[in-house]
Every structure is written in C-alpha cells, then in structure tokens.
Design a protein that fits this description.
CATH superfamily of the largest domain: Zn peptidases
Family: Belongs to the peptidase M20A family.
Radius of gyration: 27 Å
CATH architecture of the largest domain: 3-Layer(aba) Sandwich
Bound molecules: 2-acetamido-2-deoxy-beta-D-glucopyranose, zinc ion
Strand order of the largest sheet: 1-2-5-3-6-17
Oligomer: single chain
Number of strands: 18
Structural class: alpha/beta
CATH class of the largest domain: Alpha Beta
Active site: 175, 242 (proton acceptor)
Binding site for Zn(2+) 2: 173, 208, 271
Strand content: 15-25%
Binding site for Zn(2+) 1: 208, 243, 545
Protein name: Carboxypeptidase yscS
CATH topology of the largest domain: Aminopeptidase
C-alpha cells in the first residue's frame, strides 16, 4: 500500500477562498488563464463543481455502483446445485475428480512440434478420455467437437437459436507449465500425485487451470442432473497450449467458433483470472479483469566487420549494444493513470467502498483530476501507487544478450532481446517509435546504418543497427461495464461468492490482467470478455508456475455454484430477447 499522507494544503482550502482566488484570477488575469498549469485550473474547476465529493465513501454518486444479488428464476435448479456444494459426499467426489486430472501430466513445452508430428502431445488424449469417462451425462447432452485434435469444444445446445440468444462461452486450458526435473524434490507432495491432505489439493495444475476446468464441467453436469434445459446455448472450450503460444489449440478453437457464430456472436466469455477475490484497502473485492496488457518482444542486432583484437575500433558491436541497452533502461516508459485503464475503475471502487481511512488521501484526492484528464495528476497518481507500477505503465525487461565468440577476435554481431508488456493506453507502433527514437541517434553517432521496425532489412551494409519485432500483441480491448453481460456476471458474483475475513460486502471491480490468456484469440467474438477465478487467489497465485502449486478444497468445491448460477442467470436474460 502507498503510505498514508496528509492532503497537500491547497486541497483543504475552503470553498470561499477558492471562489475568491478564482474571482481574482478570472477578473484580472482572464487572458492569462489559458497559460496556467492544468492542475491549478482544474483545482479551481473542482472548487465550483465539488467533483471531489464523488470520491467520498458512500457518496451515492453512482461510481462503482454494485448490482443487486442476482438469483436465478429456476429455483429448483439453483437449490439442487446449492445442496450439492454443501454436501460432504459431493466434496469427496469433485476433489477426487480434480486429483485424478492432476495425475495426467499434460505439460506443454516451448519447443513442441506440431500436433500429429510431436508425440508429446499424445498425453492430451488421456485428458479427453478422462473427461469422457468422468462426465458421461455431459457427453450425452453436449456435443464434443475437436479443433486441431486436442482443442475440445463441448456445445450444450439451448432451445433458442444463437441468433436469438447468443451462446455463453467458458474457457479453460488442459495444459500445465512443465515441472523441471531438478525441482521435483522441492515439492512437499509429488507434483503429479494430486494429493489431498484434508484441506488442500496439491499438484501442478491445481489452480492453473485444472481446478477451473473441472469446475465448469461440474457446473454443466450438476445442471443437467437437476433437470435444467437451457434456452441459451452453453459452450465449454478447452485449449491445450495456453501456457505456450496458444497457436495449436487456442487459435484453432477461436477460429472454429468464429466460423460458426461470427463477429459478436458470443454473449459473454469467461476465462481464468489473475486475481480472483482479494482484500485491498481493507475491503474484499472480486477482481474481474476486463483487459490485458499488450505484448512485444523487440530484437536488436548490431553488426559490423570483425578483425584481429590487436587492432580494435574504439567501440565495437558489444560496446555499441551496451550503449543501446543503457539508453533503453534510462528511458523507461513513464507511468500514468488514465480513465481508459480498468485500474482507475478499481481505484474508484476502493474510494467509494473501502473504509475511508484505508485509502490514502493522496490517492483519493487525485481521482477527480485524473478523471478530468489532468495529465499532471495522472503522472503523480502513478507515482503514489509505485508499488503497483506495472499496472500503469509499459514494462521492459532486457532478457537475452549475446555477442562475441572468441576472446582474441573482434565480434561481428551482438544481439539483444527485450520483453515488453504494453500499458492499455499504448500500442505496438507507439512502443516501436519510442525504441527507434532512442536507437537511431546511437547508430548515427557511430556512423552506422539504422534499420527500424518497418525496414526491409537485409541491407548489404555491413555496419548497421537493426530493430525488429518478434511476438507482438496489442493491448486487449477493454470489455464494457455497461453491458447486460457485465450486469449478469456482477450480480452472479454478488449472489454466490462471499467476502473475505469480516467484511460485510464483496465489491465487484474491474481490474487489469498483466499477463495474457487464450482470450487474445477471441476479440472478434464478443466485447464481453471477463477473466475471473471465483476463489481467493491471494496465496495460490504465487505458486501457479512454480513448486507446491495448490488449491484450497473449501473454495474449490464451491466454484461450480458460481458457474452454474452464471449459466442460469444468463439463461434468464435470454428470456427477454
Ligand atoms: C539478428 O541476429 C540474429 C542472430 O544473432 C539472426 O538470427 C536474426 O535473423 C537477425 N535479425 C535481423 C533483423 O537482422
Ligand atoms: C486496515 O485497517 C487496520 C485497522 O483498522 C489499519 O491498522 C490498517 O492500516 C488498514 N490497512 C490499510 C491498508 O489501510
Ligand atoms: Zn492458466
């Protein structure tokens, strides 16, 4: 948390004094107003508009308005699912199912060949068989189709056509991050044993993402068993390579569904989240990621003629590359909090719903100015929230560097790779421009040819600096908070999930996902893409890609209630069309 501090003096000035100051300014210096710095001008404007009151706790301003708890009209189906998730016999059953799927080591490796050519994909046949044998009712009511062999698509057809009620789509991935051989002994319980110690289920994939996969399957299974038949089609889709590129299953599944349902053909997409339910500012939040940062790997090559080390130039390719890396790190991307960033929505929610004393007044006092577009306040707020800096800026990390093969030879090439995660306000072309502006002068200074991102490379020139993009993904479009889909999701969260500790209320808030999910392939299918895991992820998250991954049984067994209620509520919304 940012340190709590007192508001700057000027923030406390009384309305009359602001009025007086404004009157003087307007009367005497009206022309000069244009040249005043933005903060002063907006402080004055605020004095008139009293806009800062909006960000007081319980201001009733409609900011971060919470939906009512949404109960399905199908009381019988809801009751059936609720009774199940409270029953110890059911707990034992669903825990066994999770434990069993953890025992299938469906690892995805960076260097996997294509499906069909690389035998290591075959483990995914076992996942499919496992689903088929554990969910016979689902397989009976829903149609199973395949996208590129291991992408699984289950369609539980509703009575209404997709043109009248767009399908609800829930995603999960079958693959897990590999367990490195020399870390196996660091696990308290073997990673692929699926050990349940009475409280926690241990193993690779417990949180990421097999708990989610089993929960959504369970939700459909329970609803089928309750006798419910949907009006709105429900689709479950399971990728096989979310942890690597997503090209083998993620993209084929998206293409398959896009071909069938078309642009904007889906009602709502649910996928794994990065935050789930957490406590911040002394308040429980259900953090729904409504956007993802972008992604870019930038490659830099410096090439020159080599030669004997006894006759070196003042700066060889390694020296010049070092200069470039220094320039990159010294010109890091500035932080800025804007209203486009869902994290601003989170701060608004915290301002009006968290205890007044738990949100630093330095933060609260800037929200109105940030909303008004004051760029000074936007930068200052990012500074105040430096402990969460990468939610508010593009990150850059120089991850690989190579150059030189022999101590007595002048190197001919130095190469570097930089990994960037793009702020929601940024874009691939803005980041590329920034890098070109930094690197071009260094190339010129050393009399080298400069090749930017849009160059046709391969210039015969031997002495050159080249920039090139490798993997690239724009920041995800921000999902709307005023759609029916969002209202149904929010109302479902509030109806089925509980706040942490002694909080009275669970506040649903938009959030930003710093990493990427398979949803990156689904942008055309709907604007309503929500990444959210309906459990307390506070500790689980840190273990997702490392040793001792786990999920708490008490939370896991309730996940199907959330997903089943979402299906029922989305079905009720279909009645109105
Ligand atoms: C950069 O150098 C690497 C080898 O270090 C090479 O594979 C790559 O093709 C080069 N790219 C450009 C654009 O020069
Ligand atoms: C949360 O509340 C406790 C007790 O009221 C207080 O001591 C603590 O500083 C608060 N935490 C935050 C982040 O404001
Ligand atoms: Zn995952």
């Amino acid at each position: 948390m940012a340190q709590q501090g007192n508001a700057p003096k000027s923030r406390n000035s009384s309305l009359p004094s602001v009025l007086l100051r404004s009157a003087v300014l307007i009367g005497v210096l009206s022309l000069a107003l244009t040249y005043l710095d933005a903060p002063l001008w907006s402080r004055i404007a605020e004095g008139f508009g009293r806009s800062r009151d909006k960000y007081a706790v319980g201001s009733g301003s409609g900011i971060c308005r919470q939906e009512v708890k949404l109960s399905p009209t199908n009381i019988k189906a809801e009751r059936f699912v609720r009774d199940k998730v409270e029953s110890p016999a059911y707990h034992a059953e669903i825990i066994k199912k999770l434990s069993g799927i953890i025992q299938i080591p469906s690892e995805s490796y960076d260097e996997l060949g294509p499906i069909g050519a690389d035998d290591r994909w075959n483990v995914f046949y076992r996942i499919e068989e496992y689903i088929e044998s554990n969910y016979p009712k689902v397989l009976e009511k829903a149609t199973l189709e395949h996208a590129n062999t291991h992408g699984l698509i289950l369609t539980w057809r509703g009575s209404l056509p997709a043109s009248e009620a767009k399908p609800l789509l829930m995603l999960a991935h079958q693959d897990v991050v590999p367990v490195l051989a020399d870390t196996v002994q660091d696990w308290t319980h073997p990673p692929y044993q699926g050990h349940f110690d009475g409280e926690v289920i241990w193993g690779r994939g417990a949180t990421d993402d097999k708990g989610y996969l089993i929960s959504i399957l369970e939700s459909v299974d329970l609803l089928i068993k309750s006798g419910f038949t949907p009006k709105r089609t429900v689709i479950l889709a399971f990728g096989c390579d979310e942890e690597i590129s997503g090209e083998n299953c993620g993209r084929p599944i998206a293409d398959f569904l896009h071909h069938r349902y078309g642009d904007e053909g889906i009602y709502l997409i649910m996928d794994e989240g990065s935050m789930g339910i957490q406590r911040e500012f002394n308040q429980s939040f259900a953090m729904v990621s409504v956007a993802e940062k972008g992604y870019l790997d930038v490659g830099i090559n410096v090439t020159s003629t080599g030669g004997h080390a006894s006759n070196p130039p003042d700066h060889n390719v390694i020296g010049i590359m070092s200069e470039i890396v220094m320039a990159i790190e010294e010109n890091a991307f500035p932080g800025r909090v804007t209203t486009k960033n869902p994290m601003f929505g989170f701060l608004e929610c915290a301002a009006v719903h968290a205890p007044q004393s738990s949100m630093p007044s330095t933060v609260r006092s800037k929200l109105g100015r940030v909303a008004g577009g004051d760029i000074h306040a936007q930068a200052q707020l990012a500074q105040d929230l430096d402990h969460m800096r990468y939610y508010f800026r593009t990150s850059q990390s120089v991850g690989k560097m190579s150059g030189g093969v022999k101590i007595n030879a002048i190197p001919e090439i130095a190469s570097t790779m930089v990994n960037l995660r793009l702020a929601v306000e940024s874009s691939i072309s803005l980041v590329e421009q920034h890098y070109e502006n930094l690197v071009r002068p260094i190339a010129q200074k050393h009399g080298m040819v400069f090749e930017g991102f849009r160059s046709s490379y391969g210039s015969p020139e031997r002495r050159k600096v080249s920039l090139y993009g490798v993997d690239a993904l724009e920041p995800a479009p921000v999902s709307p908070l005023d759609s029916e889909s969002w209202r149904v999701l929010s109302g479902t969260i509030r109806n089925t999930l509980r706040p942490l500790e002694n909080d009275d209320e669970l506040i649903v808030t938009p959030y930003l996902m710093p990493a990427n999910t398979d949803t990156k392939f689904f942008w055309a299918l709907t604007k309503n893409i929500y990444r959210f895991t309906p459990i307390n992820l506070v500790d689980n998250l840190n273990r997702a890609h490392t040793t001792n991954e786990f999920i708490r049984a008490g939370e896991f067994v309730r996940e199907p209630l959330f997903f089943a209620t979402l299906i029922l509520n989305a079905d009720d919304a279909a009645a109105g069309v």
